[in-house]
UniProtKB/TrEMBL annotation:
Family: Belongs to the mitochondrial carrier (TC 2.A.29) family.
Keywords carried by this UniProt record: Membrane, Repeat, Transmembrane, Transmembrane helix, Transport
High-level lineage: Eukaryota, Fungi, Dikarya, Basidiomycota, Agaricomycotina
Entry's localization field: Membrane
Pfam families, A to Z: Mito_carr
PANTHER family: MITOCHONDRIAL THIAMINE PYROPHOSPHATE CARRIER 1-RELATED, PEROXISOMAL MEMBRANE PROTEIN PMP34-RELATED
Bilayer disposition of the protein: Multi-pass membrane protein
Protein name per the record: Mitochondrial carrier domain-containing protein
Record-level GO cellular component terms: membrane
Length: 351
């Protein structure tokens, strides 16, 4: 996404492939740094509605991290790490690739309508958001199965089976393939696409993030007459602000998507109807088909508007740190991607 990040000389313009690689590597790096926070915020989002008896302090980021460490050790902080990194890489690669490709194609079409030698106009905020949403929708379709598996692994049996007696707990294979087989066994192949509808709604999240970031970046560069590059500190602050705004706007659907993928929404439905069963028990078809809108309506009735934002502080802490690190590191990863491209071109051009 070098066309967004900084004006590069035409001879050194990153291709969509290289730009996607830079974005994906940067995303993996930033998410790996804050991964324990990712596990903690997922646990909070899943357990908040069922854990009615818990104090609010018990669902804070620090309390959840300490609870995971006491129950599962340091390994609990990195539960599902491999699947999450695979999901992060594939999701970010697909997003940056589609975004770079769609945006560059759109700019080329605009340039063709201008006199030769004219500089293409800056894209409007609406255009940036539309392009980002389109790229996000395409990437969601191809990558959400890994996201479902990663969410199940992060939650773990300790939370999923909280309603079952401790005597039923036995060593369980929680590898990527084992979880995938379990999902297919419970819900069929379509179970791998649980949360696709709220996921489509959430395509506006990166669109808002990058749209706001690029708009603020262009304003700062114009005001400071800089050489087309922001300092790492400024990039960090812009990334943090952009991601915070996007998270606040879209959080109810973020929470709904996580609960649907972890199947905690099924347990809530059964509890409300006084039915036996749970995630690994027998659930009726209506419980299995509970959607994001129905889940949000139940939360609204039982907890009020505040219930939609349960765990948002944990989401913001993780998302802001991760996104800010991504914006800061992506510049360096773009340099590395460009160097790899040059070396690859030289290597393949040898007779």
């Amino acid at each position: 996404m070098s066309t967004l990040s900084k004006p590069v000389k035409q001879a050194q313009q990153l291709t969509p492939f290289a730009s996607a690689l830079a974005g994906a590597l940067g995303a993996c790096f930033s998410n790996a740094v804050v991964y324990p926070l990712d596990v903690a915020k997922t646990r909070i989002q899943v357990t908040s509605s069922a854990a009615r008896g818990k104090r609010k302090d018990d669902l804070s980021m620090l309390s959840m991290l300490l609870q995971i460490f006491k129950q599962e050790g340091i390994n609990g902080w990195y539960r599902g790490f491999a699947a999450t990194m695979l999901n992060t890489f594939s999701m970010q690669y697909a997003y940056f690739f589609f975004y770079s490709f769609i945006r560059s194609s759109y700019i080329k079409r605009l340039t063709l309508k201008l006199p030769p030698g004219s500089k293409p106009p800056a894209l409007s905020t609406a255009a940036e958001l539309s392009l980002g949403a389109a790229a996000g929708a395409l990437s969601q379709i191809f990558t959400i199965p890994v996201s479902v598996i990663a969410t199940r692994q992060q939650v773990g049996r300790s939370v999923q089976n909280s309603s079952q007696s401790s005597q039923d707990e036995r060593p369980v294979d929680e590898s990527l393939l084992a979880v995938a087989r379990e999902i297919v066994r419970e819900d069929g192949v379509t179970g791998l696409w649980l949360g696709i509808k709220p996921g489509m709604v959430l395509t506006v999240n990166p669109a808002i993030t990058y749209g706001v970031y690029e708009r603020l970046k262009s304003l700062l560069l114009l005001a400071s007459a800089a050489n087309g590059k922001l300092t790492p500190g400024t990039s960090f602050l812009l990334g943090a602000f952009s991601k915070t705004l996007a998270t606040i706007v879209t959080y109810p659907y973020i929470m709904a998507k996580v609960r649907i993928q972890a199947r905690s929404s099924d347990t809530d439905t059964l509890e409300n109807e006084g039915l036996p069963g749970g995630r690994n028990g027998n659930t009726d078809s209506k419980a299995k088909q509970a959607g994001a809108l129905g889940l949000l309506l139940r939360v609204l009735r039982k907890e009020g508007f505040v219930g939609w934002y349960q765990g948002m502080s944990a989401q913001i802490i993780k998302a802001v740190l991760s996104q800010a690190l991504l914006f800061v590191s992506k510049e360096q990863f773009e340099h590395w991607a460009l160097a790899i491209m040059v070396l690859f071109t030289k290597f393949t051009s040898r007779p």
